[in-house]
């Protein structure tokens, strides 16, 4: 169960793209340790942009974000520290195609955290075991199915021992029959008490796993509620429209 | 009126059809493939027969000239000139030593490549191509020195050098795996060291007498200039390509200026220009004579074109790769070095090798600024009254020599490409 200690604290975040588009219009969100927050919303609503600000993949112009007590600023050391503690899983997996699965997992711990390769590889094999693809360790990403690649991507994030995991539409690029295996891994992580912020349209996952569902529209948070309340009794007109479209 | 009824095989509980072997038309036999490729229809057959006749006629004509009419004495009498120019005879042991070292290290590297196949593949120690290469090497070692009418001691040297290469290949292939891994990791590192050592051997210094560049010539000079330009232009190309994509305006502008200036002028112009102004632009000891000035011009020339090849490679790497690396905490230099550049350079490799091949051929322009590279040597030989009118023999030899060098570059790059390609995997 989530504690009250905040892991992510975003206050009044405003972002404009260089072309002048106002992508985030004063977003507040606080995520507690061990909490699973699902962010939904129509495309272009800023949900991906928002979670990408948490590890400085996107800049923002106004407001403040702190992750695990470290304020995001232009200080490069802070950004690197936050990135080490914040895992990110992408829609397109973004595995490194020139490295084997095992090397994908061990690269960052070895070159960033300066840990011993043998020790990291033992841990990486245990993680691959956990996501169910230990037997593929010496293959290259291009030789795996989409579902397997996404599970490797999750294991790669876990290998840095992050305190928070961010998921940016982790199942949207997958064939339908592979969505289940990835959600299963994410369910397991939530059960182990990992703090997770998940941008997804998987209603079943949100209902079952999330502690809170957030609906974004036009760069702001429209509704924030427990999943059951959100899906059965949405308060906001925009939420009702959105649910009507995806159901 | 017929009602739509399920066919006999589409019932709900029918077992799925198992896979069966492909019919012959999918995997035809050798003779079948030949028939399909060359004589599929009457027109195909006619074109094939005509082409085969033309090719045969040309090949026969060339062969008859080469064996009966051509007088190869012009090559036999000038072997040493074509190979090393006017390099002093009493210093030639240095070049022999270099050849021995290169042959030995090549053998070791070749064997180790086979002993350590890629992680996801089962590698043979002696694949068919390697056996073929050894047979070819043996034939060349036996035939070429004799055909060039080298003295018996010289022939013997080439036999020993070839034997050394093949022996090292066998030893490294069989025992490479039992060597300590530290020793194995030294092998790729020893190539740049050997290059530097080779430079010292050729030019002198460190206690051995100097041989000035004006006395280098022939194949030696051509290979030296080409390899110098290729090796140095590579880092230049990478840095300039990164500079062109940098967010620092000054770096970006100077990269663009450099690339566009070099690409806007013909190499021959730059070579003449370099002879006149490089002396003012580079630190004193860097370009003391015509040869070094030309080497720098070739390097800068190749670097600009290479930068464009590398830039194309960088553009082809999806931005998600950099984002993933950064989100794992890799700093910008680390992300470039470990994630982006390995992929970009692999993509740029074919274009880069094409650039290297044309650079190798462009070294013939050195003869126009008065250097005795292969072409320059050939022109002095043909100007010799003793060998007047032997142009065909000389030019054919030159063409074959260049063809061999370029083929080696191409073969090497394709092997490298296959080894680096993460999606190409035999079942």
CATH fold field value of the largest domain in chain B:
MetI-like fold
Mean pLDDT of chain A: 90
% residues in beta strands of chain A:
15-25%
Tally of helical runs of chain A: 9
The percentage helix of chain B is: over 70%
Structural domain count of chain B: 2
> What general form of chain A does the structure show?
globular
List the helices and strands of chain A in order: EEEHEEHEHHHEHEHEEHH
Number of strands of chain A: 10
Uncertain segments of chain B: none
- Count, helices of chain B: 16
Rg over C-alpha atoms of chain A, rounded to the nearest angstrom: 18 Å
- Average pLDDT metric of chain B: 85
Strand elements of chain B, count: 0
Please give the CATH class of the largest domain in chain B: Mainly Alpha
- The low-pLDDT segments of chain A are none
Specify the CATH homologous superfamily of the largest domain in chain B: MetI-like
Query: Which CATH architecture of the largest domain in chain B would you pick?
Result: Orthogonal Bundle
Report on the biggest sheet of chain A: 6 strands, mixed
Major sheet strand order of chain A? 6-7-8-3-9-10
What share of the residues of chain A lie within helices?
25-40%
Can you tell me about this structure?
The complex is a heterodimer of chains A (247) and B (427). Chain A is built from nine helices and ten strands. Chain A is an alpha/beta fold. In chain A, the strands form two sheets. In chain A, strands 6-7-8-3-9-10 form a six-stranded mixed β-sheet, sandwiched between helices. In chain A, helix 6 links the parallel strand 7 (164-168) and strand 8. The mean pLDDT of chain A is 90. Chain B is mainly α and 427 residues long. Chain B has 16 helices and no strands. In chain B, helix 5 runs parallel beside helix 7, helix 5 (92-115) packs antiparallel against helix 8 (181-203) and helix 6 packs antiparallel against helix 7 (152-175). Chain B is globular. The chains are: A alpha/beta (247), B mainly alpha (427). The A-B interface holds A 55, 57, 80, 83-84, 86-88, 90, 92, 94-100, 107-108, 111-113, 138-143, 156-157, 160 and B 119-120, 318, 320-321, 323-331, 334, 338-339, 342-343, 346, 420, 422-423, 425.
């Amino acid at each position: 169960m989530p504690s009250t200690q905040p892991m992510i604290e975003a206050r009044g975040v405003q972002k404009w793209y260089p072309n002048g588009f106002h992508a985030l219009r004063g977003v507040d969100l606080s995520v507690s340790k061990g909490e699973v927050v699902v962010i939904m919303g129509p495309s272009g609503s800023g949900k991906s942009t928002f979670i990408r600000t948490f590890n400085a993949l996107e800049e923002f112009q106004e407001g403040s974000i702190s992750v695990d007590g470290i304020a995001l600023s232009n200080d490069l050391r802070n950004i690197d520290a936050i990135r080490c503690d914040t895992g990110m899983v992408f829609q397109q997996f973004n595995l490194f195609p020139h490295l084997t699965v095992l090397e994908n997992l061990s690269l960052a711990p070895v070159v960033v955290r300066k840990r011993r390769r043998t020790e990291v590889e033992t841990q990486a094999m245990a993680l691959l075991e956990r996501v169910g693809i230990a037997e593929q360790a010496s293959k290259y990403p291009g030789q795996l199915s989409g579902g397997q690649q996404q599970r490797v991507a999750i294991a790669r994030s876990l290998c840095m021992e992050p305190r928070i995991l961010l998921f940016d539409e982790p199942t949207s690029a997958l064939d339908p029959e592979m969505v289940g295996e990835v959600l299963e891994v994410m369910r397991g992580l939530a059960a182990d008490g990992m703090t997770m912020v998940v941008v997804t349209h998987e209603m079943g996952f949100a209902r079952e796993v999330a502690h809170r569902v957030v609906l974004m529209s036009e760069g702001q948070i429209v509704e924030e509620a427990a999943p059951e309340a959100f899906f059965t009794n949405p308060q906001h007109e925009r939420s009702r429209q959105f649910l009507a479209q995806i159901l | 009126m017929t009602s739509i009824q399920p066919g006999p095989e589409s019932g709900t509980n029918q077992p799925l059809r198992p896979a069966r072997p492909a019919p012959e038309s999918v995997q035809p036999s050798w003779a079948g493939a030949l028939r399909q490729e060359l004589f599929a229809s009457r027109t195909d057959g006619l074109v094939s027969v005509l082409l085969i006749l033309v090719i045969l006629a040309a090949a026969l004509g060339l062969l008859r000239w080469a064996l009966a009419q051509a007088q190869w004495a012009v090559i036999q009498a000038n072997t040493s000139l074509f190979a090393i120019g006017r390099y002093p005879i009493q210093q030639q042991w240095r070049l022999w030593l270099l050849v021995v070292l290169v042959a030995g290290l090549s053998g070791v590297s070749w064997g180790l490549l086979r002993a350590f196949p890629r992680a996801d593949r089962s590698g043979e120690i002696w694949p068919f191509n390697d056996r073929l290469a050894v047979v070819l090497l043996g034939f060349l070692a036996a035939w070429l020195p004799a055909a060039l009418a080298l003295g018996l001691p010289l022939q013997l040297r080439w036999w020993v050098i070839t034997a050394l290469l093949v022996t090292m290949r066998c030893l490294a292939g069989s025992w490479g795996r039992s060597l300590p891994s530290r020793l194995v990791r030294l092998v790729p590192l020893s190539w740049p060291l050997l290059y530097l050592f080779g430079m010292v051997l050729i030019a002198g210094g460190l206690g051995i007498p100097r041989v000035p560049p004006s006395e280098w010539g022939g194949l030696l000079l051509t290979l030296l200039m080409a390899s110098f330009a290729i090796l140095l232009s590579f880092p230049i190309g990478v840095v300039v390509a990164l500079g062109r994509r940098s967010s620092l305006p000054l770096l970006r502008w100077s990269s663009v200026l450099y690339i566009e200036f070099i690409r806007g002028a013909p190499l021959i112009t730059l070579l003449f220009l370099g002879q006149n102004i490089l002396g003012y632009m580079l630190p004193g000891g860097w370009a003391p004579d015509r040869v070094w000035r030309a080497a720098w011009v070739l390097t800068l020339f190749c670097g600009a074109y290479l930068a464009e090849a590398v830039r194309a490679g960088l553009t082809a790497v999806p931005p998600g790769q950099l984002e993933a690396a950064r989100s794992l905490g890799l700093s910008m230099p680390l992300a470039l070095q470990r994630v982006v550049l390995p992929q970009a350079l692999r993509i740029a490799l074919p274009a880069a090798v094409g650039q290297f091949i044309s650079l190798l051929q462009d070294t013939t322009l050195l003869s126009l600024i008065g250097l005795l590279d292969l072409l320059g040597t050939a022109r002095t030989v043909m100007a010799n009254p003793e060998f007047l009118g032997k142009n065909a023999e000389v030019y054919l030899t030159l063409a074959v020599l260049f063809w061999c060098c370029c083929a080696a570059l191409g073969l090497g790059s394709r092997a490298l490409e296959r080894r680096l390609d993460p999606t190409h995997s035999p079942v």
